[in-house]
Design brief:
Blueprint (H helix, E strand, L loop, with lengths): L1 H6 L5 E3 L3 H10 L5 E6 L18 E5 L6 H11 L5 E6 L6 H14 L3 E6 L3 H13 L4 E4 L3 H4 L2 H10 L4 E3 L2 H5 L4 E5 L1 H16 L15 E6 H6 L6 H6 L2 E3 L1
Parallel strand pairs: 1-2, 2-3, 4-5, 4-6, 6-7, 7-8, 9-10
Antiparallel strand pairs: 8-9
Helix pairs in contact: 3-4, 5-7
């Protein structure tokens, strides 16, 4: 798809969906400007030279994804404090999966809980992961930020409901689709900022001179309908901090 856009000689390529699509676009062209949204660690991922001076044909809006896993786990345990074993669902096929794994391990250690980390890169592996969670007596689950897993929110939320496993997700869009809870930067804001950068580039600015933007808006979303179906009572202190409550 990236090569096709280059063949069409488009003026700007917008790379949605995180690091994978942006890496594909960058591999396809060093001349056409590329604007990304919701990319984690653009410097470490080899997309830009630095945040302040990207230095090439790529810029956009960064996202905090793995960095928020500790906060997500804290919020989940505020809802189900008796949980001793917490599961984490990761996609082993994503770039640098070991970095994300280390992050959730650190998050579990911080809250003093045992972690069961499970990889799932296909729909069948997601089914198997939930069976393993039940077998290992994990009574709560954190779904890490990953385009594949986000795209399987309906499957994951249905399995979480069937197995009565309270689950926290990386994006509010997953909560809107039936998930229990999420804590994240705002994807809507990220895409809006990326759109504004695309406009500036179309008006003649150089992406090499446009600093990578950092997220400033964070949102906690809770689905009360899902909580009730799981037999959970959301503490008033948690509801009061929620930016969005879905009923």
């Amino acid at each position: 798809m990236a090569a096709d856009l280059v063949d069409r000689r488009v003026a700007v390529i917008f790379a949605g969906g995180g690091n994978i699509s942006t890496l594909a676009a960058k591999a396809a062209t060093s001349a056409i400007p590329i604007v990304f949204a919701a990319v984690s660690d653009p410097v470490g991922g080899g997309l830009v030279t630095s945040l302040n001076r990207p230095g090439g044909n790529v810029t956009g809006m960064a996202a905090l994804t793995a960095e928020l896993d500790a906060k997500r786990m804290e919020l989940l345990l505020e809802l189900v404090p008796e949980t001793k074993v917490v599961g984490a669902l990761l996609n082993p096929n994503r770039p640098n999966p070991e970095v994300q794994l280390k992050g959730v391990q650190t998050a579990a250690q911080k809250v003093g809980r045992q972690l069961v980390a499970l990889g799932a890169g296909t729909e069948r592996e997601i089914d198997s992961a939930f069976a393993a969670l039940v077998q290992q007596r994990a009574h709560a689950l954190l779904v890490t930020a990953d385009p594949f897993l986000t795209g399987r929110t309906v499957q994951i939320s249905m399995l979480a409901a069937n197995h009565a496993i309270p689950t926290v997700y990386a994006w509010r869009e997953s909560v809107a689709a039936g998930g229990l809870m999420s804590y994240s930067t705002s994807l809507v804001d990220a895409y809006r900022q990326a759109g504004l950068y695309a406009v500036r580039i179309l008006k003649g600015e150089n992406p090499a001179d446009l600093p990578v933007l950092q997220p400033t808006k964070f949102e906690l979303a809770i689905n009360l309908k899902t909580a009730n179906a799981l037999g959970l009572t959301v503490p008033p202190s948690l509801l009061a901090r929620a930016d969005e409550v879905i009923e």
